[in-house]
Structures are given as C-alpha cells and as structure tokens.
C-alpha cells in the first residue's frame, strides 16, 4: 500500500474525522447515520444467541430449524437478518465439539452475538484454533472428555457460524429463560462449554 | 501475513481472554464501514484487501480499528470517492 | 455441482506471488485433499469483489480436512471444515 505521501499514516482518529467531514459534505455518511448505526450495532449482544440456544434445548422443532438455517431461526426470534451474511449453526454432540475461528480476518456472527471479542480477533487465537485446538481450549479452562473429537470451522467466506452447545446436566425441567442465563459468548463460539 | 492459521510464530503465544471495551472511535469506524457497505460504496472484500495490503510492521503496530480506518481511507481514495486534496484539506488545522 | 462426500483437492496455487490479489482460501489447505460436506449456496467471487470488478456467482462448499494430514501434531478423528469456492477445487 502506498501511503499517499504519508496521509494514510496519520493518526486514525484524525483520518476518521477528516473522512467524515468530506463524506458528510458529499451526503455519503452523516454523523446522524453513524450514531444510528452504532445504536443498532450495540443492540446486538450474546443475549440474542443465548435465547436461540435455550429455545433449541427446549423445543425440538426449533432445534431442527436452527440446524437447518440459523438465519431462519434468528428471524423466528425477531432478529433482523436482512442484509446480514447467512448464519450457520454447528451442533455440539457428546462425540464432537465444534469450535469457530476466522484465520483470515475476524468473521463473526455479529447479528446474534454482537461485536467480536478481542481474543477472537487476536493473532494467537486465529493461528492456534486450527493447529492446536486442545491447547487453546485448555487456556479457556475447557477440557473435553477423552475421545471427544473437535470440528474446527474456519470461517473463510460468506457464512457466519455459531455453535449450538451441549445442554449441561442438572438442568432438567428448567425453562428457556433460566437456561439462557447460563449461556455465555464463548459457549457459542466453542471455546467454553455451558456450566451450571 | 493476514493468513495466519497454524503459523508457528503465534503458536506459543497465549490468548488474552479478558474483555476489552470498544472505544467510541472503534464504534464509529465500525459504523462507517457498515454504512459504506450498505450503500455499496465499499465491499467487505475491498476492506479486507486493503487491510491485507498494510505493511506487516505497521499491521502489528496498529490497533484493529486503526487498520480499518486506514484501509477504508485507502479504498475511498483509490475509488475516487474522496480525493487526496479533499481529505488533506479536511485534516488541516483551522 | 459437487455432491456431498466427493473427494476433492485444493489447487496448489499461490496468486500472491503473481501480483495484488485477495484470496479466501487459507494457505494451509492449498494442495490438500478433503471431502465435500455440502454446497452452501452461490456467492460472488471475492477475488473480484475485492477490486470492485464485476464478480461472477460461484458455488461455495463446506469442505472437510483431516488436520493430521496438514500438521504432524493433528489429532486423528478431528476435522477442520472450511468454506471454499468451486474454482479452487478439483475432484480428486
């Protein structure tokens, strides 16, 4: 990349402010549009994905829909998926544990989990998830039972992927809302497992 | 250099799992990227290509969203959406 | 269209060495053998989108690889599954 006589090497905040001055004058992007977009983006959080997972644990038809199309399952929860990349859902079973990474950049199921966490974007996570998944999981405190296989999904193109984790033992009879309270961001990427 | 799955350089580096709050700047840049995508002014692949074009030393020095704003700027300049003169003028202290 | 279960080989191609480009096929599976899991849909070729060129719509597949065939430390039975466009694949 040439640096346009140093222009591109200027401080990021100054570049943003300069670009916004020009883009607003051209009617391409205004501060009001930026504020609106931030509000919409901030509203997406792991609570959305957790509600989907909890419903899948308690409603077999919804579970089937979710595994067939994460996009449709998200829409069934009232989440707007129009304009968002297609969402795929990876099922964890007692035999196979699913883990999501994007080794090329930081593709993340933002519509249902919100902004990607810092660790997901880090070089060490991206490098190690495909090459040393067990060592990586151990760092997150996750030790899989002997014999469990790992399916690492490297999110390289047009889909975004979330994990449908295993329902923990000891939650029989719990309703979806109580179950959703157990489910954390990392459980839906596969770095952790849901615990009571 | 962006294509880092499994490379040895990062294999011994632990992952920092602590939450990092996004700054207002981070959110603004993220929002601008979305708007440019929705208006079909810059695709996510153009963003990625321009991030991949950042020299390696710079890439690791910049924060995540500093890379983005640099790549967005490069893309908009390349495509003539914004001219170098316009951007330079907007960044001059008044 | 490649059916689920089809054995494939990823092109051992390195366009990066020939000039500016944007490739969504990770380096670590170039030249590797895998198995088609399923067709995910058809999407615009990112290699053209990245340069704002007209981009053809191409089949995109989920392809499964054996990590033990990629890295010596890979665990037998584990899988790496990757989205790969058809123009990077040959039936093996």
Write the layout of secondary structure elements.
The complex is a heterotrimer of chains A (about 200), B (about 90) and C (about 90).
Chain A: H1 12-25, H2 31-43, H3 46-58, H4 60-68, H5 70-76, E1 87-91, E2 96-101, H6 110-113, H7 118-121, H8 123-131, H9 133-139, E3 149-154, E4 160-164, H10 176-180
Parallel strand pairs in A: 1-4, 2-3
Helix pairs in contact in A: 3-4, 4-5, 8-9
Chain B: H1 24-38, H2 44-52, H3 56-61, H4 64-78, H5 84-91
Helix pairs in contact in B: 1-4, 2-4
Chain C: E1 7-10, E2 33-44, H1 46-49, E3 57-65, H2 67-70, E4 79-85, E5 89-91
Antiparallel strand pairs in C: 1-2, 1-5, 2-3, 3-4
What features would you describe in this structure?
The complex is a heterotrimer of chains A (196), B (94) and C (92). With 196 residues, chain A is α/β, with parallel strands linked by helices. Chain A folds into two domains: 3-41; 45-189, Nitrile Hydratase, Chain A. Chain A is built from ten helices and four strands, in the order αααααββααααββα. In chain A, helix 4 (60-68) crosses helix 5 (70-76) and helix 8 crosses helix 9 (133-139). Chain A is globular, with a radius of gyration of 19 Å. Chain B has five helices and no strands. By secondary structure, chain C is mostly beta strands. Helix content of chain C is 9%, strand content 38%. Chain C has two helices and five strands; from the N terminus they run ββαβαββ. Chains A and B meet through helix 1, helix 2, helix 7 and helix 8 of A and helix 1, helix 2, helix 4 and helix 5 of B.
């Amino acid at each position: 990349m040439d640096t346009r006589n140093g222009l591109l090497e200027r401080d990021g905040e100054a570049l943003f402010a300069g670009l916004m001055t020009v883009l607003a004058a051209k009617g391409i992007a205004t501060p009001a549009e930026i504020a609106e977009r931030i509000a919409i983006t901030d509203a997406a959080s792991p609570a959305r994905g957790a509600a989907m997972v909890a419903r899948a644990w308690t409603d077999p038809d919804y579970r089937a829909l979710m595994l067939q199309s994460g996009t449709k399952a998200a829409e069934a929860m009232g989440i707007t998926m129009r304009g968002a990349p297609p969402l795929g859902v990876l099922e964890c079973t007692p035999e196979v544990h699913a883990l999501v990474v994007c080794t090329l950049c930081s593709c993340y199921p933002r519509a249902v989990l919100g902004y990607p966490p810092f660790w997901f974007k880090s070089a060490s996570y991206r490098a190690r998830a495909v090459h040393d998944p067990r060592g990586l999981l151990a760092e997150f405190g996750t030790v899989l039972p002997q014999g469990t296989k790992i399916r690492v999904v490297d999110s390289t193109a047009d889909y975004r992927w979330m994990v449908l984790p295993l329902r923990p033992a000891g939650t029989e009879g719990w309703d979806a809302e109580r179950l959703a309270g157990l489910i954390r961001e990392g459980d839906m990427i596969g770095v952790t497992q849901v615990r009571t | 250099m962006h294509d880092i799955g499994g490379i040895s350089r990062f294999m011994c580096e632990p992952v920092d799992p602590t939450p990092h709050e996004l700054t207002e700047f981070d959110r603004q840049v993220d929002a601008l990227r979305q708007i440019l995508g929705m208006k079909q002014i810059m695709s996510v692949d153009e963003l990625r290509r321009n991030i991949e074009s950042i020299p390696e030393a710079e890439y690791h020095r910049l924060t995540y969203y500093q890379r983005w704003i640099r790549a967005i700027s490069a893309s908009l300049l390349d495509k003539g959406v914004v001219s170098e003169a316009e951007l330079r003028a907007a960044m001059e202290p008044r | 269209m490649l059916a689920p279960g089809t054995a494939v080989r990823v092109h051992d191609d390195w366009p990066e060495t020939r000039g500016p480009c944007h490739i969504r096929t990770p380096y670590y599976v170039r030249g590797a053998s895998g198995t088609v899991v399923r067709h995910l849909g058809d999407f615009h070729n990112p290699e053209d989108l990245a340069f704002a060129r007209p981009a053809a719509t191409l089949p995109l597949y989920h392809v499964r690889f054996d990590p033990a065939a990629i890295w010596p430390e890979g665990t037998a039975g584990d899988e790496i599954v990757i989205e790969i466009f058809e123009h990077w694949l040959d039936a093996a």
